[in-house]
Amino acid sequence: MNRTGLTELEIVLAVARRGTFKAAASELEMSPSAVTNAVAALEKRLGVRLFNRKRS
Question: Which of 2, 7, 30, 56 is 20 to 30 A off residue 41, Cα-Cα?
Answer without folding.
Answer: 56
